[in-house]
UniProtKB/TrEMBL annotation:
Note accompanying the cofactor annotation: Binds 1 Mg(2+) ion per subunit. The magnesium is bound as Mg-PRPP.
Catalytic reaction(s) noted: UMP + diphosphate = 5-phospho-alpha-D-ribose 1-diphosphate + uracil
Family (UniProt): Belongs to the UPRTase family.
Name this polypeptide is given: Uracil phosphoribosyltransferase
Pfam families in the cross-refs: UPRTase
Regulation: Allosterically activated by GTP.
Gene (UniProt): upp
CDD domains with a match to the protein in the record: PRTases_typeI
Gene Ontology molecular function: any one: magnesium ion binding
Cofactor: Mg(2+)
Entry binding sites for 5-phospho-alpha-D-ribose 1-diphosphate: R87, R112, D139, P140, M141, L142, A143, T144, G145, G146, S147, D208
Organism whose genome encodes this protein: Nakamurella antarctica
One cellular component (GO) term of this entry: cytoplasm
Pathway the protein takes part in: Pyrimidine metabolism; UMP biosynthesis via salvage pathway; UMP from uracil: step 1/1
Presence of keyword Lipid metabolism: no
Amino acid sequence: MPAPHEVPSNLPLVLVDHPLAQARLSTMRDARTDNAAFRAALRELTLMLIYEATRGLSVERVPIHTPVAKTNAIRLSNPPLLVPVLRAGLGMADQAHALIPESQMGFVGIARDEETLLPTPYMVSLPESLAGRPVFVLDPMLATGGSMVHTIKLLLARGATDVTAICALAAPEGLATLAAANLGIRVVTASIDERLNDSGYIVPGLGDAGDRQFGAV
Ligand code: URA
């Protein structure tokens, strides 16, 4: 298990260190885990990350009748927009949507240039206005933070003020990048790993989250 790290003070962070979350993460880390088992573990971990991320969502009360009595039911009053970052975030999208069926989904496609490690956008499909709407960005790996900063700037440019980055793993370098960018967002993750290596992979990490889900193409 990686050692705990300092979290930048201007970056609110929820660390989902529940044993079940850590068990799924261990399955994902294990190089022997095949694509199908990796996808299943990511789905299950996503359930736990979303569960924690949604804890503070606003709700409204609506009167209903149970078979026994009148009572007030609770439902989300402002469901978040889900934004998986392609391609690795796709593996989190279905589970997040299953937990919040009333949510809508946007998409951002960002590839990482393997030489410069810089984010290269190739697709943006988002509502024009995100004012007043919570947004959950789904990306299993917060590595350099470049793709995440790029994605969040797209959201802020559309008026978003309540953005949560939901990641299976985070590198301290990625958290530092987010903190330095001072974007006013929050992070929900199951682990802060040790560091990035020279190729920009999280250590110990789990390898390439896209390749681990879908195969190396
Ligand atoms: N993206 C990945 O999929 N894995 C890493 O370790 C870093 C970035």
